[in-house]
Write a structure and sequence with these properties.
two-stranded antiparallel ribbon; DNA-binding; 6-stranded parallel beta sheet; 9 helices; elongated
Amino acid sequence: MKILTHAVVLDDHRLFADSFALLLQRFGAFDAVSSFSKVDEFIDFLRSFGNQKLYVFLDYYLPETNGLSILTDIKRLNNQAKIVFITSAIAPAVIRNILRYKPHGILSKSADIQDFIMCLEAIERGREYIDPQFEPFVMQRGERVVTFTPREIELLKYFSQGNSIAETAAKTFLSPHTIVAHRRKMMAKANCHTIAEMLTYAQKNHLI
Amino acid sequence: MKILTHAVVLDDHRLFADSFALLLQRFGAFDAVSSFSKVDEFIDFLRSFGNQKLYVFLDYYLPETNGLSILTDIKRLNNQAKIVFITSAIAPAVIRNILRYKPHGILSKSADIQDFIMCLEAIERGREYIDPQFEPFVMQRGERVVTFTPREIELLKYFSQGNSIAETAAKTFLSPHTIVAHRRKMMAKANCHTIAEMLTYAQKNHLI
DNA sequence: CAAAGCATAGCATGTTTTTGTTATTTTCTC
DNA sequence: GAGAAAATAACAAAAACATGCTATGCTTTG
């Protein structure tokens, strides 16, 4: 299979980004491969690249942000880009989150070359590719995803740092009642019954 | 630099293991490179390889276990092996844990090729290499590492699953007083003041 | 624009956790 | 086999939390 296009890798783990770019090169399907480990540089590249056909291999975990939040940027700068998530995540909520954005492909870092080839082939044929191990997380119709509001996540961070309700209230200039209300709502959403469980949930799903 | 020896990569992320192995090959310092993503297969390889000179590039995060627990196996099977940790961890406790085992090298996955070369050169000269970003975690003399006992970790798991002190006591057939005592001890060790902070700590340091 | 969801706030009550302090038995480790 | 560390257990007071219920103004979005 020969895909006459450019491929670009974005992963904050430089060693992975460079190695994987090498693998893409060696694989021979692309006519050029670039790798980035800094979001800024990647965005600069996109800007200069213009609206040509392009493959983007994206990591979900990026420092300070995540792969999803730059998806809008990518789509704005290049509406032809084929976007493939390469993720080490296994937390259902994270996978669901990624799937919600309907990328062209999603591959686990535990995948092998064979999976990778299948992914490319599917996309070239205009279909999407979802790593088989993520199939169970494809949303059923009517199913709701648990999401957290910015405020909730902010408060969660305070709790994770050892702040009590009263301390959090003081630091956010809110009433302790409000903190209780938020906290209660979060725990109801995530179906947790102790703050310990809530924090485990938050960590697992990379909310904080 | 030409190192006439075999190199082997162990990382459960196949895509990384394979890509990185390719990078090692391309780099040209080794006369052969193998990659594994399953611990069993890796151990089998070690057994058959015998006690020859060897470079091992090891991930810390492995499913069901971690890179440290197989260190003893590696040393038993090959006392000449140069062991380099390639890790995505940044949690101080995890890094300290790795450093305690005195590997020949430790490199962050965020390192670049230049860092990698420096690592190899240092080891070839008989010295150890520690990623500069991990320097702060090198233990000072007299410094204590925070460790958790098996019982403590067991209880931590109960808490992470939403069990209260009373519930945990019931499930472990212990007195609630005992649970309180353990809990208190852990929190003192980790310098946490709420169970929320404790659970965040536990997650960050991959205790549970 | 209406409905839904978000952020805010309140009160009351019973439960749970945290903290200060102490102590015995068992199990490693040198 | 002595000493250290771990696991066990207890009591009591103070602080914090969970949960029952209600309610209002503000955004966002179909």
